[in-house]
Amino acid sequence: MRILAAGDHFVRPDLLRAALREELGTDQEITELTLPWPHEPFGPVGDVHEASGTEEELVEALDGAEICVTQMAPFTEKVFTACPRLRMVAVSRGGPVNVDLAAATRHGVAVSFAPGRNASAAAEFAVGLMLAAMRRITTADAELKRGRWRGDFYAYDEGGIELDGATVGLVGYGAIGRIVARVLRAFGSHVLVADPYTDPTAARADGVEPVGLDELLRRSSVVSLHARLTPETHHLIDAAKLELLPEGAVLVNSARGGLLDYAPLPGLLKSGRLGALALDVYDIEPPPADWPLHDAPNVVTAPHLAGATRQTAHRAAAITAAEAGRFVRGEKLAHPANPEVQEAARS
């Protein structure tokens, strides 16, 4: 069986190959393709989003392949039509956003994904963003490097807030949210969670308090977003929701830019209504040079780095290789995106 390891400069082809060899041995023919991300930004390719490379180079690399393991390759209707031997695509991401699932299903191609691959990395980064925003860490660093000793930050009105004793609200309580909650509880925070898919009894057993979104926003001095982006959650936190936050609250978004309406944020920061903002994701990536938040006070920014750890890359390769192994052995996939394909093949 021929397998294409379509890696990039994060989940590299050699990592995918090594994971496949460990899972399947040396009997399979494995070829490699290196896509340009992250040295070149991902974006829409054909009819899919957040992909890297071109349809043409992927079709050429897939020649004769039955399985592809990848993070960013653009699996579009055009690609599936041009590759009739393809039977399975294992995507090493939390969701197969670079795959046209309807087209895959029509062509009888099973698709899997890799939930939780970056949960630890993203959770640690979210807590880091909280601390940076709450304690002015990045601002103080930048000022000191410019030769300014900001002793005035010790003044009461300029002082930060602590996680110990703070009420922190988590919007979304999946794999990442649960790790964040565990870390926050170790700091001494009281953690609220708003997630319609979470069992309240299980949440309470974790030591967190499940509440509705509006109550969470009203009670939390720090709010961190951890929901998945769907049509229902687009602009989940809009201008009206932002007005529910207590005066001086800190807002963190390291999940998806589309969860948050960015338009009201500069005014809320300049008025002091919002105390600080920490972002790793944006409504436009990268933000343009005239982005209003560039000039707003008390903003911490990072270029979509929450999942960028070496452990995440190795974990992603291992999860996708395991799915490829299940498929080769005729076993049910652990994380199918279109389970009906395997079910049809068995019937």
From TrEMBL:
Listed SUPFAM superfamilies: Formate/glycerate dehydrogenase catalytic domain-like, NAD(P)-binding Rossmann-fold domains
Gene Ontology MF terms in the entry: NAD binding; oxidoreductase activity, acting on the CH-OH group of donors, NAD or NADP as acceptor
UniProt cross-references to InterPro entries, sorted A to Z: D-2-hydroxyacid_DH, D-isomer_2_OHA_DH_cat_dom, D-isomer_DH_CS, D-isomer_DH_NAD-bd, NAD(P)-bd_dom_sf
Protein's recorded name: Hydroxyacid dehydrogenase
Pfam (any one): 2-Hacid_dh_C
Residues annotated as transmembrane: none
Source superkingdom: Bacteria
Region forming the signal peptide: none
Stated family: Belongs to the D-isomer specific 2-hydroxyacid dehydrogenase family.
Residues annotated as domain D-isomer specific 2-hydroxyacid dehydrogenase NAD-binding: 127-306
Gene3D superfamilies: NAD(P)-binding Rossmann-like Domain
D-isomer specific 2-hydroxyacid dehydrogenase catalytic domain mapped to chain residues: 48-338
Keywords annotated in UniProt: NAD, Oxidoreductase
